[in-house]
Amino acid sequence: MIFKPNYRFETGCAGYLFGCGMLGRCAVVDVREEDVDDAMAFATAKGMTITHVIDTHVHADHRSAGPALAARAGAAYCLHESARVKRPFVPLRDGQIVELGNTTIEVLHTPGHSAESISLLVTDAKRGKQPWFVLTGDTLFVGAVGRPDLRGHARDSASALYDSLHQRLLTLPDELEMYPGHFSGSMCGTGLSGKPSSTIGFERRWNPMLSLDRETLIDRLADVPPEPDDMRAILAFNRGEAAESGGA
Question: Regarding the domain delimited by 2-238, which CATH topology (the fold level of the hierarchy) does it fall under?
Answer without folding.
Answer: Metallo-beta-lactamase; Chain A (3.60.15)
